[in-house]
Write a structure and sequence with these properties.
It is built from three helices and seven strands; from the N terminus they run H-E-E-H-E-E-E-E-H-E. Strands 5-4-6-3-2-1-7 form a seven-stranded mixed beta sheet.
Length: 147
């Protein structure tokens, strides 16, 4: 019985966001005006490794912002991720460098940034198109220093 309870507890910890999760506002300046999100920060190696794995839903105005600290080519995947995501790759100046739309759930196929970026914003699949996000749009968040 204790083994089953320990397994259930471990599973709950994997599925639910960490109790210490940090949520911050983020805005993207699009050609149609600002688009606001509330993002969960993934700043540590453990947070970045887990990302949105095991989640079964993501609110329309929610996302996860992966901070890689310095600009570098980034490679993501969808292993253990149950919902399609849009991955918005962002340079250090806050400009969107590329967008991978509606990535395939549970896939281990590599999703590349296509160049050096500092961060990746993951949103529910279809959000980038629905909200008018485009390459070159400015992301406003304290992680980025506009130039």
């Amino acid at each position: 019985m204790m083994g089953v309870l320990a397994f259930i507890f471990a599973l709950v910890l994997l599925i639910l966001p960490a109790a210490s999760a940090v949520f911050e506002p983020l805005t993207i300046q699009t050609k149609n005006g600002p688009v606001a999100f509330t993002v969960e920060m993934a700043s540590t190696p453990a947070e970045r490794a887990k990302g949105l794995m095991y989640r079964t839903e993501l609110a329309p105005n929610a996302g996860m912002l992966f901070d890689f600290g310095v600009e570098q080519p980034i490679y993501m995947w969808m292993k253990n991720t149950y919902i399609p995501l849009d991955m918005v790759f962002i340079r250090a100046d806050g400009r969107i460098a590329s967008i991978a739309e509606n990535t395939t759930p549970l896939s281990t196929q590599t999703i590349e940034s296509g160049g050096s970026v500092k961060a990746v914003l993951e949103l529910a699949g279809g959000t980038a198109k629905a909200r008018g996000l485009a390459v070159g749009d400015q992301v406003v968040h304290n992680l980025f220093a506009p130039k």
